[in-house]
Design a protein that fits this description.
The structure is a single chain. By secondary structure, the protein is mostly helical. The protein contains 26 helices and no strands. It has helices at 2-13, 16-27, 29-49, 57-69, 71-84, 87-93, 95-107, 111-125, 129-138, 144-168, 171-190, 196-202, 212-221, 224-238, 240-243, 247-251, 254-272, 275-280, 282-288, 295-316, 322-349, 360-373, 379-387, 393-444, 454-462, 475-489.
């Protein structure tokens, strides 16, 4: 017990524990985002069965998609707030629309109240930009992938919790319970320092050992020498040279435009592959497959697998490149929806035949979720916090996330229309085509960022080698983390 206590003390005092704590608090916003994303899956069936609301198919479609339509507003707002007020304050502000939206949904007497509540929670759900920026800036190259993976883990937990609670209690109670997570995010972030990179920008690159930026970096690294090194390197990108650049040079430079185009393409393929359509319509989706088990139970099974695989992804991302994970993930998604589409199409043509292998659709969906969670669902969001230069990172991350949320809204809103026009099998084959294209995109277009500092990633898109200068943050810190892991293994 004493040995374990000693290891935990080292874990905290070397700064690793502080980074993990800060990343968890920042990404706790994703729990609320996960609840928002999974809510329509349990909400719509309960509304349809309720005598208080006579919800039509069109109204159901709007209730599901309105959770995404205002996400772009949140993405842009979060980027602007993170650039001006700081990453930490932007994360805290995102809790306000969550609180208002969930209260409107939980207490609303008419469907118009539900529409407004859904719109407001959608704004909050789009405000994840600051979380990814904050964690990307406090992490080291060795820990950045794992710490950013706490976001999909938190979102998956929120989705699973929603599915479980939807099976047990009413949608109004779930909405009111959800307010507690927004309060936790706001309060916990108040206890942490802001991103040192942002604080350096605020002080225009002039930092002394008593300045907020130095104190914040020391909080995470726990090493004065490593802190001074990292502060000097951050100052190189935040000094007069960077300040003299015009908006045109900043936002139209290769290191900004190239990652923007890459990420927009990746997000477009992600949404077309059906990941979020399955998420928002999970219960109805299982109803379409005519499974002989409870639709809610099926959703809980898929949610459990998604949560478990998000943890697996966090472990894999430390050892396997983002590019490899996305390629393998999209390959598995392609195979699973191909088998599902062929199965559904066969019984659409031969409707009179008695079905065999009735659990095959469930296994196809499970494997689709499994493969999506180890690459194509979490990694595009992780890359948003890695690819852009510091000077434009919050704004450009906000713009990309806003565009991604537009894609989500369109795909979710059109899902029922696709079913009407293409049929269920035709919709599945659309997901198959997009997944196949994603596999090629990940293999031949997407660059690798694993193990690279943010400066090295910027230099890659600029077409230059990494700039020479002090070692990246906490190389000593990385060594300390390695030492702790080695000692724990013993």
């Amino acid at each position: 017990m004493r040995a374990l206590s000693g290891q935990l003390d080292k874990f905290w005092n070397f700064g690793v524990g502080r980074m993990v704590l800060a990343a968890f608090c920042a990404h706790s916003v994703s729990i609320s985002i996960g609840i928002t994303q999974g809510y329509s899956a349990i909400w719509l069936p309960q509304l349809n069965a309720s005598a208080d609301f006579n919800v039509t198919s069109e109204q159901s479609s709007w209730l599901a998609s309105l959770g995404a339509v205002t996400n772009p507003i949140g993405g842009v707002c979060s980027g602007v707030l993170a650039q001006t007020l700081g990453r930490r304050r932007s994360i805290q502000i995102s809790s306000v629309p969550f609180l208002i939206g969930w209260l409107l949904i939980g207490l609303g007497p008419t469907i118009d109240w539900l529409y407004v509540g859904r719109l407001i929670t959608g704004i909050a759900a789009g405000m994840s930009t600051a979380s990814f920026t904050y964690v990307g800036e406090i992490a080291t190259p060795a820990t950045r992938g794992f710490l950013q993976s706490l976001s999909p883990i938190s979102a998956s937990f929120g989705i699973l919790l929603t599915y479980v609670l939807g099976y047990l209690i009413s949608w109004r109670t779930i909405a009111l319970i959800s307010t507690s997570f927004a309060v936790f995010s706001a309060v916990s972030m108040q206890l942490l320092p802001d991103s040192p990179a942002h604080l350096i920008k605020v002080h225009r690159g002039v930092v002394s050992q008593g300045a907020d930026a130095f104190k914040a970096q020391l909080f995470f690294s726990r090493n004065v020498a490593a802190t001074e090194q990292e502060i000097r390197q951050m100052q190189q990108g935040s000094g007069p040279k960077g300040a003299e650049k015009s908006l045109r040079e900043l936002y139209l430079s290769p290191e900004t435009v190239k990652p923007f185009v890459l990420l927009v393409g990746l997000f477009l393929l992600q949404e077309l592959s059906g990941i979020y359509s399955l998420l928002f319509y999970a219960v109805q989706f299982f109803g379409e497959t005519n499974l002989k088990i409870n639709d809610y139970v099926s959703s809980i099974m898929v949610g459990s697998i998604r949560f478990a695989m998000s943890i697996v992804c966090a472990l894999l991302i430390q050892r396997v490149g983002r590019k490899t994970l996305c390629s393998f993930s999209s390959f598995g998604m392609t195979l699973s929806v191909l088998i599902l589409g062929l199965y559904i199409k066969y019984y659409e043509i031969n409707a009179d035949e008695e079905r065999i292998l009735t659990l095959l659709p469930l296994f196809c969906i499970i494997f689709n979720v499994l493969f999506s969670m180890i690459g194509m669902l979490p990694i595009p969001w992780i890359l948003v916090g890695e690819m852009f230069p510091l000077r434009v990172r919050p704004i450009m991350a906000g713009v990309v996330i806003a565009i991604a949320q537009c894609f989500i809204f369109i795909c979710v809103k059109l899902y029922n229309n696709m079913i009407d026009v293409l049929g269920f099998s035709g919709t599945i084959f659309t997901f198959f085509a997009a997944s196949a294209l994603t596999m090629l995109y990940a293999k031949y277009v997407l660059p690798e960022t694993r193990g690279k500092s943010l400066d090295e990633i910027e230099a890659h898109f600029r077409g230059a080698g990494p700039e020479k200068g002090p070692a990246h943050l906490g190389r000593g810190f990385d060594n300390a983390a390695f030492t702790i892991e080695t000692e724990m293994a013993r």
